[in-house]
Design a protein that fits this description.
Blueprint (H helix, E strand, L loop, with lengths): L1 H15 L21 E4 L11 H10 L7 H7 L3 E4 L1 E4 L2 E6 L2 E6 H14 L5 E5 L12 H10 L1 H4 L2 E2 L7 H4 L3 E5 L10 E4 L8 E6 L3 E7 L8 H17 L11 E5 L9 H21 L6 E4 L6 E2 L2 E2 L2 H11 L26 E3 L5 E4 L3 E4 L2 E4 L2 E4 L1
Parallel strand pairs: 1-2, 1-13, 2-6, 6-8, 7-8, 8-9, 11-12, 12-13
Antiparallel strand pairs: 3-4, 4-5, 9-10, 10-11, 14-15, 16-17, 18-19, 19-20
Helix pairs in contact: 8-9, 9-10
């Protein structure tokens, strides 16, 4: 009888998890990264389980944001991951605050590299930061991260960020964007200006050259649910409307977090917030097409977690399917891009990376990817 129940339970769980094909294979090579709708996960490794006495005791009730392992998230179609390494002796563990997961940073990056090697149509984005709460701000962190990412076997699969990077340039690669600096020159890119306001804010990405990003990562939601929902919608309003050639504006990458917590920082607080915010993005994208950016969610790939309908499977599927509902801005030439006016005609206003007006099409010229306004270089 117990065996029968176990089989039935396993079958029911399988229904709740999606197994996506290599969906990025349908994307055009000349599509900019910023024009792709990508499902991602917040504190991605909490689905791997917990390590150590405190985390094993408290993690299930206080720190869980994912029910699926990294492998199952990949199978589900997730292509962006939030990894938070900290120093743990001679290695880098991945933590959620002070709670240590069973995941190791180098092993996880290697796992992602193997995935894109085995699935060359796909690429993966990693957003990482120093989880300093887990190691009291250990000063060895930067050197250890740098040595890890410089490992020959990993390095050949790691992409370098550039402002106009395309799908074709990313296929078979992992792009690591770090919120904390670990070297003078990044492997991937460095994110500066990250914040946690309800309204989305602007930051910069430093790589081969410098680009911009927008982020909404308001996580201490508590009873302030309306502000969280407004923040999500405002960034979606921007990203979906940004699928037109507004100069460099369509190269701005958007990180839109549905993640956060109510009921204080707890697993049930994460679930309650996910039930609200994941569904809100589903409803939005069912009504409006256009790039959603990188949507970072809790409980990806499962619709039910605990006693909550978190709709993480529906949201992953909705984001993937959203790519088929619009024609993305594409690079005319994968090696360069052309500044386009905002609107039509020589008097139309052109904008810089942050959307600020910088001149008109009549006095703006492009020479080999360098933009000249009245004889002055304005962007490279």
């Amino acid at each position: 009888m117990k065996r029968r129940c176990s089989v039935v339970l396993a079958m029911l769980m399988a229904v709740l998890v999606c197994w996506a094909d290599n969906w990025m294979g349908d994307l055009d090579d000349t599509t900019y990264l910023s024009q792709v709708s990508i499902p991602g996960t917040h504190d991605s490794c909490t689905g791997e389980g917990w390590s150590g006495f405190i985390a094993t005791l408290s993690g299930p009730s206080m720190g869980t944001t994912q029910d699926l392992t990294i492998a199952r998230q990949l199978d589900c179609g997730v292509r962006a991951f939030d990894l938070r390494p900290c120093v743990n002796g001679s290695s880098l563990a991945i933590n959620h605050g002070i709670l240590q997961t069973k995941a190791d940073f180098k092993s996880t990056v290697a796992q992602l590299c193997r995935f894109v090697t085995d699935n060359p149509t796909e690429f993966v984005i990693v957003i990482m930061r120093h989880e300093s709460d887990g190691d009291d701000g250990n000063s060895n962190w930067a050197q250890m991260v740098s040595e890890c990412l410089s490992d020959k076997e990993l390095r050949e699969r790691l992409a370098d960020y550039k402002r106009d990077i395309t799908v074709g340039e990313l296929r078979g690669k992992v792009l690591i964007l770090s919120r904390d600096s670990y070297a003078d020159t990044p492997i991937g890119g460095f994110l500066t200006g990250w914040g946690h306001a309800a309204d989305y804010i602007t930051g910069t990405i430093k790589g081969i050259n410098t680009g911009n990003y927008y982020v909404q990562d308001y996580y201490e939601v508590m009873s302030d649910k309306e502000n969280k929902l407004r923040g999500i919608q405002k960034l979606l309003d921007y990203s979906t409307a940004n699928n037109i050639k507004r100069g460099y504006r369509h190269l701005i990458i958007c990180f839109n977090h549905t993640s956060g917590y109510t009921k204080s920082a707890s697993t049930d607080g994460n679930r309650e917030n996910a039930a609200l915010c994941n569904q809100a993005v589903i409803d939005y994208l069912n009504k409006k097409a256009g790039p959603a950016g990188i949507v970072i969610m809790d409980f990806a790939g499962t619709d039910r977690s605990g006693s909550h309908n978190v709709n993480g499977l529906k949201l992953v599927n909705t984001i993937i399917e959203n790519n088929k509902k619009y024609t993305p801005v594409k690079a005319a030439n994968p090696n360069s891009i052309t500044m386009m006016p905002y609107g039509q005609g020589a008097s139309s206003t052109c904008h810089d990376l942050s959307g600020r007006p910088i001149g008109t099409a009549a006095n703006l010229k492009c020479r080999h990817g360098i933009f000249i306004l009245n004889g002055k270089k304005i962007a490279k």
